[in-house]
Design brief:
Number of domains: 1
Structural class: alpha/beta
Bound molecules: 4'-phosphopantetheine
Number of helices: 5
Shape: globular
Strand content: 15-25%
CATH superfamily: HUPs
Order of helices and strands: EHEHEHEHEH
Radius of gyration: 15 Å
Helix content: 25-40%
Distance between the termini: 34 Å
Largest sheet: 5 strands, parallel
Number of strands: 5
Oligomer: single chain
CATH architecture: 3-Layer(aba) Sandwich
Length: 149
Amino acid sequence: MRIAVFPGSFDPLTKGHEEIIRKAIPLFDKIYVAIGENANKKSCFSLDQRLQWIRQAFADESCVETAVYEGLTVDFCRKVNARFILRGLRNAQDMQYEKDIAEANRHLAPEVETVFLLSTPEIAHVSSSLVRELYHHHADYSEYVSYEL
Ligand code: PNS
């Protein structure tokens, strides 16, 4: 089984995340969209709400599962026997940041490989923080999120 973990805060899940997951579906037998809970990081949307949006978006995809974990992403990978961490890249800044995290994860768990998929240019400007900002100001966020917040 090719099992991947797509970790993130998903605060909230954006069309950018959705695109990466949909592109990854043909590559893996199972994808855990896993919310990494960080006690020191306050999220805008509740855990239940974030989980519900992910489940709703991928209700038709039996290979996509949702999960929540605390601690290291690689420890969660080991728990679910995932050999791959999936991450999306939007631009060069993402690449620089993600490369360092991937190296740290490789050091912690050499058996887990990080796989990157590129966002399409039309969607590369989308981020959860942008959505939160628009939501906060009661502005239209429908271009960035496929459901009602
Ligand atoms: O893209 P995001 O939402 O900022 O990602 C957050 C997440 C959960 C992927 C990140 O905070 C994370 O990896 N947390 C677990 C701790 C960890 O494993 N860090 C990497 C090794 S130092």
